[in-house]
Amino acid sequence: MAGQVLLAIFFSLCLSASGQAAVGTYVTADDIRMANDAALKAEAACVSGSSMTIDDYDTARAQLVDASANNILRTIMTEAATQEEMTTLVTERLPSAMIGAAAPLIMFFILLIFYTFCCCWTACPFCKCCRCCARLRQIPFLAKLLFLLMIGGFVLALVIVSSLSTRGYAKATEGFDVTNCAAAKMVNATFQGQADPYFLGLIPVLTIFDELQGSLAAGSTFITSLTGILDNTKEITDAVAVAKANVDLLANMLADSSNIEPTGTLHECIGCAALSTTLAQVGTALTTGTAQALSSARVEVNNQLSGSSLENLRSSMGIATAPLVELKTTVKNAFEPFVSDTIMEQISDQLAANGTVASVFMIGLALVLAACAMISIIMWMCQEKSSSDRGQPVYYKRVHRCACCTWCCGCYYTMLAFFLGGLLTILAVPLSSFCLILEDISSDLLHSIAAPMNLNLTGPEGDMMGSMIDQCIGNATGNPRLLDLISVPDANGNTVTMYDLLVGQTKDQIASQFDQIGTSMNTGGASIATSDDFVLLKNMLSTIALDTMMLPKSSYDWAGDANYQDMLANSDMAPYIASTAACADNVVPTGFGLTGEGTTQKGITSFLSTLSPTYAASTISRSNCASDFTCKTSAQLGATDYAACEAAKKFMDLKFAIRSQTIFKCRRFTVSSVPCTVQFMAQVGGTWTGDCKEADGTFTEVTYDCIRLSCRINDTAAMKSFSRGDLPTFVALVQAYSGLLDLVFARVDSSTSSALSQIQVNLKNLLDVNFLDKIATVGNGVTCGFMGTTYRDVVNGLCYGGVWGIKAVASSYTACAVLTLFLASGKW
Ligand SMILES: *[C@@H]1O[C@H](CO)[C@@H](O)[C@H](O)[C@H]1NC(C)=O
Ligand SMILES: *[C@@H]1O[C@H](CO)[C@@H](O)[C@H](O)[C@H]1NC(C)=O
Ligand SMILES: *[C@@H]1O[C@H](CO)[C@@H](O)[C@H](O)[C@H]1NC(C)=O
Ligand SMILES: *[C@@H]1O[C@H](CO)[C@@H](O)[C@H](O)[C@H]1NC(C)=O
């Protein structure tokens, strides 16, 4: 019965894994009462034995198989495809299979009939006509002695065999005690947990689930506090987002091919790559920095514990709780009688008492019978004959009286023993069949017998049940986590284990985000605005004017271009083929990894002064420093220099073009299509304005021709002064980012310092206490190894104690009956 209950627990556990969420409080006062009762009961019940010692397992198992008519139940259930088929098979197979088991009972009926028709008038002690005694006999003394010895042997065997029933009773009693103890321990462990193998216990688990459900309910203190901290620290996420958007914007601008290789100018930006590299490092520092880690932590918490994720989490919690509540209810209903009543003790006590009486009775009867038999034999041998006057032997009436008495007693005894033994043998067939199934239970066995039990094991629930049986009961060494064995669909519709869902996808993800905060502080420190990478970037941006980095393409075949090749022939002009697009000369700044750092690079103005007045007759000013000029005549300069001057004029046109044409692409944010820079970002009453975020918190980055900047944006005077051309605007805008990035990074730092303790300490503690620790406790504490241990105790007690004992008693009685039959017929 306990085995059936265990199976029932597993079925309900598995089948309800997909089930409805239980609502309300999971643990009732009644549960706690039962848990306490179970603990007391376990203590009391296990005094008389807590585990079964099986002396010779293989033999005992073989005896069980024998008692079950060769595992008849399993054979039939395995073969039957439906319940109806099973009924058919039972009616077909059972009779022939039961012949052996039913033999003692059949013998009982044969004897009964035989006795009724024959003995009544031949063997009745009150009838005077004892046929056996009436016969005349001439049997030698030696034969009688042999006969005596044989009968003596039978009697001895009878006494031995009947005393074996005592052992059967003792074993059965022990088995019930062990089952009783195991059942009580199981209830105790199921409810209150146990240390080895570790199980948290359903009451603690359900209490935690209850608290978790309470914590996660809308408007709970936890959620309110959580929302409060998340709202208070929203600034860190905003600050990081603003900083990131600006870094990205600058990076995109520097990476724009229009700016790296300005169209139609044969120039390239040789400093852009160096700037981009440093900018990328800053970007990385930002994304791996403390601020980002803080922001990610709060974003992760927000993602997991708000909106639809929170709904999913609540429902996952419900799904995880349902089978546990089901388990609790099943265990409670099934074991209530064990714990609250003393049924098992009564059975065990009755068995012990009646068993003793029964064996004493059987042994006593056997002894009386033996005594009777011996007396009559001895009398037969010594005193049967007495001399008479007529020389005819006269038989003592006492001899056949006694023989008849033995015969009759034997006959009754045989019938009684056949009857009791037969009943118990038949009873042992279903009991041991069931025991063998219980002992051998595995997913394979379950699948093979599922059909006649109307169990549907095809779906995921069936798989779950199978793995639970294999892992929880079948694996004696493992202590698997129950949540690992329950599969549920996650938010994306994938099938994941409950453990992964609650612990892996929820708890571990949140925890790893918090771990990241510590890591980032250890590697980079909390401040981004003072980080080496950022300081370098700021210096680069403010020091390097990108027009000084715009040089004629080094890869271009100037000597092969008819327009410019003559310039290369003139030693004054040739060096300017590597002059910058800036007006003034400049020294390449050191410390930034630029090519040719520390060397002086010529600008447009120097180029012009090289040409004029030596080669140019006059200069014609244009909108930038790349003035036009007219070369002196060929006669004045000579053909070669004249050609060189004309080439220089075309080269100067390139310089003019790069400084004036609408070829550079600038980038900026717009808010509702209105241009915006973070230049005027300010904190007003705790709220930041002018950080160019759209209403939905995103950033809109637009590309525009650099020339138009001044018309559209609230520029500084400095920026306006550059707004005479494309390149200067681009240069000014990039340089302005030194200050803009400073603004946004300073904001990141200030929000980091105000959010650090709120997130790293307050938020973390709040989560740990109310959520993360509990999830971890439940996830790792809800194991099922304890079920296997108890299950094996129950099976051993029930099967190798109880059922084995019953079968032993049955065999002993049957053997007694057979011996007595020999004895009695021998007398005859
Ligand atoms: C019942 O469970 C409690 C809690 O795990 C444990 O301390 C106690 O020892 C158990 N009692 C018995 C008799 O096993
Ligand atoms: C068994 O259950 C699965 C899903 O769990 C279902 O698809 C299938 O139809 C069921 N089979 C029967 C015979 O009920
Ligand atoms: C039993 O459990 C242990 C530990 O969890 C595991 O290593 C082993 O593979 C399991 N055995 C079987 C047969 O599943
Ligand atoms: C331009 O910026 C100044 C602050 O420097 C501000 O007062 C003014 O309102 C801004 N104008 C526009 C059109 O945004």
From TrEMBL:
<feature type="signal peptide">
    <location>
        <begin position="1"/>
        <end position="21"/>
    </location>
</feature>
<feature type="transmembrane region" description="Helical">
    <location>
        <begin position="360"/>
        <end position="382"/>
    </location>
</feature>
<keyword id="KW-0689">Ribosomal protein</keyword>
<feature type="transmembrane region" description="Helical">
    <location>
        <begin position="403"/>
        <end position="429"/>
    </location>
</feature>
<feature type="transmembrane region" description="Helical">
    <location>
        <begin position="145"/>
        <end position="164"/>
    </location>
</feature>
<keyword id="KW-0812">Transmembrane</keyword>
<dbReference type="GO" id="GO:0005840">
    <property type="term" value="C:ribosome"/>
</dbReference>
<feature type="transmembrane region" description="Helical">
    <location>
        <begin position="97"/>
        <end position="124"/>
    </location>
</feature>
<protein>
    <submittedName>
        <fullName>60S ribosomal protein L13-1</fullName>
    </submittedName>
</protein>
<keyword id="KW-0472">Membrane</keyword>
<keyword id="KW-1133">Transmembrane helix</keyword>
<keyword id="KW-0732">Signal</keyword>
<keyword id="KW-0687">Ribonucleoprotein</keyword>
